[in-house]
Amino acid sequence: MINRLLITLCMPLLLFSCKKNTEAVTRNLPAETIANIAYGIDPLQQMDIYLPEGRSTTTTGILVLIHGGSWTGGDKSEFVLAMPMVKEYFPEYAIFNINYRLVSGSNNLSPTQQNDVKAAIEFIAEKKAAFAVSDKLVLVGASAGGHLALLQGYKNLSPLKAKAVVDFFGPTDLIALYNLGGLFPSMLTTVTGESPETNPSIYNQSSPVNFVNAGSPPTILLHGGKDATIPPAQSEILVTRLQENKVNYQLVLYPNQGHGWIGPDLEDSFSKIAAFLKLHVK
Known about the structure:
Helix content is 40%, strand content 18%. By secondary structure, it is α/β, with parallel strands linked by helices. It has a single domain, classed as 3-Layer(aba) Sandwich (Rossmann fold), CATH 3.40.50.1820.
């Protein structure tokens, strides 16, 4: 009876001690970079992970970077040069820079890329305690990667619901893009294997505008006014849908930029994104 009483009295102290030690270890974790971690069996299903110093499971967010390349090319290495700036502007985030399977002939047609982004998020969610990060997920993508970030953020609420989406000049309405003519029908037919006439479902299911609702995450869109690869109208279409559903958003247009930019405008982009996330990610 006495032994049982002692255990009962000591248990809160033991739990408090364990909790305190765990928090101390979390606060003192060093920065760590882990390259080419697999989240699937295909060689392209990999990610590079940048874990900040002093991270914790309560304060450190998850910043997922998704590269572009028309769904047929590109690589996570495209973000390497910008990584010092990403770390500078977002020190409170762990960065997960992902690859995904690319369309090649009749292989890996859409929605393979969407499924891979979802699988990557599921991998991160499963390992977030080991990485010592919270559930504050932010998705960042450029071009095709922006399209994939929007789809993941709007379509998938589990295992982690995105707190915000950052879209650099990504397609938002594939049927509208297809109907512009020029090179767009060929590009989109290559990715989907179909046209809107033969398979409207794949176009509708792959268009972020169709999945916006009042619960969609806050979204910041950045676009060049002279972008001929993905016209600024694609961002404007999404803005209209966000407005209709009263979703917090910001549209940043750079009138003299095309499909991507560097220098002062890129620094301005990061500054505006950081302010947006500070306001909306809690």
